[in-house]
């Protein structure tokens, strides 16, 4: 033991106190050699600034080792670590056994342990058990409420999460972050931004998780003003010291909001570009139809020694699709596995089907689909249906539509595509049949809608709806602007 401590001192003196390769072995030695040295192991662990992930199973190995080495008494810190390991492993049986040990050792009334139990059950979608622990607690702190709110927001009912959030006696930035993240996951992006505004009103400072949630909400709403504001906010707080996740989120947000210039500006400002930033650029350029630029970015990335991942190839293949680069797309698909060792997934196969279909090579796309190592999903059949509608291939389109309707009989968009196919082919009896089927199941296409952002506020417009006053004003202004442009154009033409 003394020799190990001398070695630890030697590591510190020589400036290697953050070299996890060395420290991991020291921690393991102190943790399993003697029960009395566990505290020393924990001290070393706490001094590591950037901890990498480890095998959660080792928690149970050390717990059993504790018992074999004289069974030291457990305390309120023992079981939360074990329950955290169970959450990461997704091991319900071990978690339930740990819960039994909690009760057996008299810690079922400890708020710290109970919070860990709520987190364990909630993270494994056992919401009823998590709520049961919560209801039985005689004492609750802000972490208790936040943990349960997170459970409902991420794995249960967002409405229940909102109700619990309103009942919270005290709210923290973590609880706001839980609601923002939960709303984003459920596609309730406007509500996510409302929670963020409330957080600001309360004078709370958002953490990285909150910021990432708001960036995602702004991206999905196409709210450029909000996106720019949050970018400016974090730049003031962090300077330009963003990690790769933040850079990637910002690039993605700007592309989704239609500001290619801002996306490029963020990308070019990153000194050490990792695969996330490159992938966001490749996907963003593809999204806006600049397929050649996606290919160029990919080749630059590879040339600089950055290894692409599976998501990179989804963006790259999408770029090839939008640019009509069929041969290039097929070549990249083959290089995925042969050169980069990435096993294609259904998303990659779907991209190739879409690539071939959009190029009018419908027969080749169908053949490729039938040769896939997995069963085609709705996205793959949908790509074929859309191509058949464009290229007027009624026979294959009818086959694709009928397959899709077996899976999604409520989906009006499929019926509309089928109607378009039959109408183009002058098959009026079939048109009448499809309309009759739609009437029987009550499936009609929802009215189109779009979002327009004015002074930082997003307005939703539904086709034919003039009932919402602010939206109506904006709509009238757009109508006036279009009329003015037409008049100016007419004068210029004359």
Structure overview:
With 494 residues, the protein is mainly α. The chain is 71% helix and 2% strand. The protein has 27 helices and two strands. The protein has helices spanning 2-13, 20-33, 38-47, 57-68, 78-89, 92-104, 111-123, 127-136, 142-155, 158-167, 173-185, 189-201, 208-221, 224-238, 244-256, 260-268, 275-287, 291-303, 310-323, 326-338, 346-358, 362-370, 378-391, 394-407, 412-424, 428-441, 469-493, and strands at residues 449-454, 457-462. Strands 1-2 form a two-stranded antiparallel ribbon. Helix 2 (20-33) runs antiparallel to helix 3, helix 4 (57-68) packs antiparallel against helix 5 (78-89) and helix 21 packs parallel to helix 23 (378-391). The radius of gyration is 28 Å and the shape is globular.
Mean pLDDT comes to 82
| Radius of gyration from the alpha-carbon trace, in angstroms | 28 Å
**Low-confidence spans: pLDDT under 50, at least 5 residues?**
none
Quote the distance from N terminus to C terminus: 95 Å
Distinct helical segment count: 27
Number of strands: 2
InterPro entries: E_motif (IPR046848), PPR_At4g14850-like_plant (IPR046960), PPR_rpt (IPR002885), TPR-like_helical_dom_sf (IPR011990)
Protein name: Pentatricopeptide repeat-containing protein
Pfam families: E_motif, PPR, PPR_1, PPR_2
GO biological process, one term: RNA modification
What's the helix and strand layout?
Elements: H1 2-13, H2 20-33, H3 38-47, H4 57-68, H5 78-89, H6 92-104, H7 111-123, H8 127-136, H9 142-155, H10 158-167, H11 173-185, H12 189-201, H13 208-221, H14 224-238, H15 244-256, H16 260-268, H17 275-287, H18 291-303, H19 310-323, H20 326-338, H21 346-358, H22 362-370, H23 378-391, H24 394-407, H25 412-424, H26 428-441, E1 449-454, E2 457-462, H27 469-493
Antiparallel strand pairs: 1-2
Helix pairs in contact: 2-3, 4-5, 5-6, 5-7, 6-7, 7-8, 7-9, 8-9, 9-10, 9-11, 10-11, 11-12, 11-13, 12-13, 13-14, 13-15, 15-16, 15-17, 16-17, 17-18, 17-19, 18-19, 19-20, 19-21, 20-21, 21-22, 21-23, 22-23, 23-24, 23-25, 24-25, 25-26
């Amino acid at each position: 033991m003394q020799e190990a401590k001398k070695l630890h001192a030697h590591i510190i003196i020589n400036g290697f106190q953050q070299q996890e390769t060395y420290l991991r072995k020291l921690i393991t030695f102190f943790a399993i050699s003697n029960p009395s040295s566990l505290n020393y192991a924990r001290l070393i662990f706490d001094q590591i600034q950037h901890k990498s992930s480890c095998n959660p199973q080792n928690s149970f190995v050390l717990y059993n080792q504790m018992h074999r080495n004289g069974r030291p008494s457990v305390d309120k810190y023992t079981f939360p670590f074990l329950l955290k390991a169970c959450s990461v492993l997704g091991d319900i049986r071990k978690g339930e056994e740990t819960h039994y040990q909690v009760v057996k050792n008299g810690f079922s009334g400890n708020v710290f342990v109970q919070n860990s139990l709520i987190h364990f059950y909630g993270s494994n979608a056992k919401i009823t058990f998590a709520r049961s622990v919560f209801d039985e607690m005689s004492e609750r702190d802000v972490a208790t409420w936040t943990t349960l709110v997170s459970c409902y927001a991420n794995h249960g009912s967002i409405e229940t999460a909102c109700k619990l959030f309103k009942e919270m006696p005290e709210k923290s930035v973590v609880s706001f972050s839980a609601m923002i993240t939960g709303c984003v996951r459920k596609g309730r992006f406007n509500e996510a931004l409302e929670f963020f505004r409330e957080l600001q009103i309360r004078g709370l400072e958002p953490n990285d998780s909150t910021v990432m949630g708001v960036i995602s909400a702004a991206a999905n709403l196409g709210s450029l003003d909000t996106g720019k504001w949050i970018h400016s906010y974090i730049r003031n707080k962090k300077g330009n010291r963003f990690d790769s996740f933040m850079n990637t989120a910002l690039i993605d947000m700007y592309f989704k909001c239609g500001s290619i210039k801002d996306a490029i500006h963020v990308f070019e400002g990153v000194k050490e570009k990792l695969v996330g930033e490159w992938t966001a650029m490749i996907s963003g350029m593809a999204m806006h139809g600049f397929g050649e630029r996606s290919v160029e970015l990919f080749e630059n990335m590879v040339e600089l020694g950055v290894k692409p991942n599976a998501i990179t190839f989804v963006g790259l293949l999408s770029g090839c699709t939008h640019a009509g680069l069929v041969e290039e797309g097929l070549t990249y698909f083959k290089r995925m596995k042969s050169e980069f060792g990435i096993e294609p997934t259904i998303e990659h196969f779907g991209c190739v089907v879409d690539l071939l279909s959009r190029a009018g090579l419908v027969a080749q796309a169908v053949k490729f689909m039938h040769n896939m190592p997995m069963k085609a999903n709705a996205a793959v059949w949908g790509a074929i249906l859309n191509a058949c509608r464009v290229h007027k291939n009624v026979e294959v389109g009818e086959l694709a539509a009928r397959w899709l309707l077996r899976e999604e009989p409520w989906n009006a968009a499929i019926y509309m595509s089928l109607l378009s196919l039959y109408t183009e082919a002058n098959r009026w009896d079939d048109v009448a049949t499809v309309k009759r089927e739609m009437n029987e199941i009550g499936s009609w296409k929802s009215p189109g809608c779009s979002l327009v952002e004015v002074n930082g506020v997003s307005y939703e417009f539904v086709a034919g709806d003039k009932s919402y006053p602010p939206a109506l004003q904006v709509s009238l202004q757009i109508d006036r602007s279009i009329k003015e442009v037409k008049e100016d154009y007419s004068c210029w033409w004359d």
